[in-house]
């Protein structure tokens, strides 16, 4: 089924080229279907890329999904034009009295900062608290997962000795959980971060359940026991070239980055990366929308 997104969003062109059905508002409103409303708080610097990556995965279900992109009011993006934000994003203050079936909060390249030193930490905390009362199910990705685990459960993040960058094998800790339905015993997911939440801290917290982890990348998927919060430390949503773009950027900055692991054929950055995580990325998002949004959300919010 289609996605309902703002008219003129640049991602629409790329999605149509991939044969993903994107519906305009007028046609969506003519269908007698209960639309799932998803708010996306996009903290990534290059917002257009993340928009496309997420919409690609949210489209892969029988549900009609309406997307509201939400921006912070206490942070001005340096890598996305104000025109783009004004046209396609709603400030948090404009939506905080509304109810959503689902919420996605993305990562941000600020793992090196203590949470309290993040310029928009107070607004981030407000969004996290708001999600408890105004959202059925929330998915927190990468830095957002660490921030939410800290805010709600007091779990600390720990700096890594070097950046974790690559595509890593993962196993299942709870293979019968609905969010993991259809997952293989071993699957690969990209990671790109400089800090971690430790497996032993997750396991010690009785309110949380460790669903998947990696010997190299650590905790990957964690869920609250009430199934309303999903914490994902990796980047299932990444497109084929996203890690390459990050690697090239770091090379250009003279950071001498390590070649992303299990990503380039023969570890040669001049070769086209092999994408080996797409099927599990689609499963993750379709299972979340089905079992933790659609199956749990009320037909009418009251």
UniProtKB/TrEMBL annotation:
* EC primary class: transferase
Taxonomically, the superkingdom here is: Bacteria
Q: What Enzyme Commission number(s) apply to this enzyme?
A: 2.3.1.46
UniProt keywords (A-Z) are: Acyltransferase, Transferase
Protein name (Swiss-Prot/TrEMBL): Homoserine O-succinyltransferase
Organism listed in the record: Halosquirtibacter laminarini
Q: What gene name is given for the protein in this entry?
A: metA
């Amino acid at each position: 089924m289609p996605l309902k997104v703002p008219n003129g969003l640049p991602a629409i062109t790329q999605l149509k080229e991939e044969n993903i059905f994107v519906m305009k508002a007028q046609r969506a409103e003519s269908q007698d279907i209960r639309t799932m409303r998803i708010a996306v708080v996009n903290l990534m610097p290059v917002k257009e890329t993340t928009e496309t990556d997420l919409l690609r995965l949210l489209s892969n279900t029988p549900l009609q999904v309406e997307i509201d992109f939400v921006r912070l009011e206490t942070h001005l993006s340096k890598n996305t034009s104000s025109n783009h934000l004004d046209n396609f994003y709603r400030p948090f203050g404009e939506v905080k009295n509304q109810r959503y079936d689902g919420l996605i909060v993305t990562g941000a390249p600020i793992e090196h900062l203590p949470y309290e030193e993040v310029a928009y930490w107070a607004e981030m905390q407000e969004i996290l608290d708001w999600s408890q009362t105004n959202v059925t199910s929330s998915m927190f990705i990468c830095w957002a997962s660490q921030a939410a685990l800290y805010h709600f459960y007091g779990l600390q993040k720990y700096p890594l000795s070097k950046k974790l960058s690559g595509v890593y094998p993962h196993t299942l800790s709870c293979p019968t959980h609905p969010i993991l339905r259809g997952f293989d015993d071993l699957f690969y997911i990209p990671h790109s971060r400089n800090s971690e939440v430790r497996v032993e801290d997750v396991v010690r917290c009785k309110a949380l359940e460790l669903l998947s982890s990696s010997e190299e990348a650590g905790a990957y998927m964690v869920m609250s026991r009430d199934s309303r919060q999903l914490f994902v430390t990796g980047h299932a949503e990444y497109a084929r070239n996203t890690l390459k773009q990050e690697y090239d950027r770091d090379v250009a900055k003279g950071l001498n980055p390590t070649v992303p692991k299990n990503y380039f054929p023969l570890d040669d950055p001049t070769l086209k990366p092999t994408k080996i995580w797409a099927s599990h990325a689609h499963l993750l998002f379709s299972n979340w929308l089905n079992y933790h949004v659609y199956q749990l959300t009320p037909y009418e919010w009251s």
